[in-house]
Amino acid sequence: MRCGYDVETVRAAERALMGTLPDGALMRRAAFGLATACADMLGGVYGRRVVVLAGSGDNGGDALYAAAALARRGAGAVAVELAPERTHPGALAALRAAGGRTVAPEDADAVIGRADLVLDGIVGIGGKGGLRPEAARLAELARRARAAVVAVDLPSGIDPDTGEVAGEAVRADVTVAFGAYKPGLLIDPGAEHVGALRFTDIGLGPHLPRTPALEALQHADVAALLPSPSGESDKYRRGVVGVVAGSERYPGAAVLAVGGALRGGAGAVRYVGPGADAVIARFPETLVSAGPPAKAGRVQAWVIGPGLGDDSRARQAVAEVVAADVPVLIDADALRLADREAVRARRAGTVLTPHAGEAAALLDADRGDVEGARLAQVRRLAEEFRATALLKGSTTLVAGPDGAAVRVNPTGSAWLSTAGSGDVLSGLTGSLLAAGLSAQDAASVGAYLHGLAGRDLPPPFGAHELADRVPLVRASIMDSVTNDALPRT
Ligand SMILES: NC(=O)C1=CN([C@@H]2O[C@H](COP(=O)(O)OP(=O)(O)OC[C@H]3O[C@@H](n4cnc5c(N)ncnc54)[C@H](OP(=O)(O)O)[C@@H]3O)[C@@H](O)[C@H]2O)[C@@H](O)CC1
Ligand SMILES: Nc1ncnc2c1ncn2[C@@H]1O[C@H](COP(=O)(O)OP(=O)(O)O)[C@@H](O)[C@H]1O
Ligand SMILES: [K+]
């Protein structure tokens, strides 16, 4: 599990650790890790031109110490001082002692234009609000430069706790995070500015709390959660998932959701709705029924919504499924049709899977507000519906109603934004619910597999190919975990 901690928590851990170490030790560790990452990136240090954008806080200090280390190895180093009278004195002295020089922000254009590497030490976790004009101008110069850009701790201009970006922000090729990942590094729009994310351990680990603000599953976590049949399994024990999807107008949504459900590992898939012929033609193993969900027979979880429409049959089906005492995934049209109070009153797990537009409608907000503040909005959804909310989009987030860490999905690709892709995700996630995963685990494992399938397929692909790819990515996850467990020779 990769974890993100908010600034307040990182500061508290930093205080606890600093009390046990000599002055300046943490900054030395950070700067050493940073200089190493820069040298790796440059592929050689001697003769390279390094420019530091130096704010007056410790973030600027880290950058200056790292530049001093590079200068000692033969790089040319120049610092652009944002507030010369307040630049970190020790770090500035180190840079000068190593032969580096300083310039005022007015002279930044020329030095940045000639640089091989720009180190963004404008602000780190001490940044407040959008970048001030002078800082914003430097961020823009860095973005336009041909030089590689390395962000110190985080790209200046992104909110460390949320990933929100107000105005200009640095766009990095590499970001070197110190001590802990901050949520804003993992959530768009901030995450888009990060480039390759590297980590420098400065010893904060033992001082961080058990529960982070944000967590991202990795292969090993997913492997541990994925259901696999055992000797005693039969199709009912593996889980039966019911899918209520599709309409005369959108029969394809039924096929896609059922496809996802079959690949999610449930023992059987029941389909309820008017798309039965299309479903059977593609997946003859599906158990279909024409009546309402309440008469379809036993299921361990329901998926409702993709391509459902909003006629009276759809409305009745949504009401029945929301009233069921098994876990339910509510997607697409069903998000509009479900009664909010009935959802809040549910006792079994509930997963809502809106994209930003649907989330905006549910929250009475603008789509832009949802996309710009994904973490806050996914938490609001979970709270207001007392359900697990999976907010789809460039970074998919999963929040539970219990205030546990929000999960951020680390897999995926923009090629997933193709018609019907969400229908596959619904089926897949519903299948995992039927197999017995908690709402939070089913949603985050579903998004992980879906995202990995999207990365694995040669683009462009159609949504139906995603479901077919799931067994392959599942196997690669299992293989990587088994290989990691083998002794190294
Ligand atoms: N945590 C750890 O364990 C460790 C942390 N370490 C490092 O310390 C960093 C935190 O340092 P920090 O606390 O000094 O704050 P920092 O990020 O430099 O920002 C303050 C500066 O930004 C300025 N400023 C603020 N808002 C702004 C805006 N909108 N636009 C423009 N400027 C703005 C503000 O100006 P002022 O308000 O004072 O005028 C001040 O100059 C952290 O990210 C990491 O790199 C490591 O060394 C080792 C261990
Ligand atoms: N820019 C993006 N980057 C990564 N994934 C994306 C992006 N845009 C959309 N997605 C993913 O593509 C899928 C689209 O689902 P959805 O919006 O429900 O489409 P549809 O209704 O056509 O099925 C979701 O899994 C979403 O997370
Ligand atoms: K920075």
TrEMBL record:
EC number: 4.2.1.136, 5.1.99.6
Gene3D superfamilies: 3.40.1190.20, YjeF N-terminal domain
Keyword ATP-binding recorded: yes
InterPro entries assigned to the protein according to its UniProt record, in alphabetical order: Carbohydrate_kinase_pred_CS, CARKD, Nnr, Ribokinase-like, YjeF_N_dom, YjeF_N_dom_sf
Extent of the signal sequence: none
Chain residues that bind AMP: K392, G393, S394, T395, T396, G422
Keyword terms: ATP-binding, Isomerase, Lyase, Metal-binding, Multifunctional enzyme, NAD, NADP, Nucleotide-binding, Potassium
Domain (YjeF N-terminal) ranges: 10-210
Cofactor note: Binds 1 potassium ion per subunit.
Names of required cofactors: Mg(2+); K(+)
Ranges for domain YjeF C-terminal: 218-477
Top-level taxon: Bacteria
Pfam families, sorted: Carb_kinase, YjeF_N
Record: residues binding K(+): N59, D120, S156
Known role: Catalyzes the dehydration of the S-form of NAD(P)HX at the expense of ADP, which is converted to AMP. Together with NAD(P)HX epimerase, which catalyzes the epimerization of the S- and R-forms, the enzyme allows the repair of both epimers of NAD(P)HX, a damaged form of NAD(P)H that is a result of enzymatic or heat-dependent hydration. Catalyzes the epimerization of the S- and R-forms of NAD(P)HX, a damaged form of NAD(P)H that is a result of enzymatic or heat-dependent hydration. This is a prerequisite for the S-specific NAD(P)H-hydrate dehydratase to allow the repair of both epimers of NAD(P)HX.
Family membership: In the C-terminal section; belongs to the NnrD/CARKD family.
Subunit structure: Homotetramer.
Descriptive protein name: Bifunctional NAD(P)H-hydrate repair enzyme
Species in which this protein is naturally found: Streptantibioticus parmotrematis
Gene that encodes the chain: nnrD
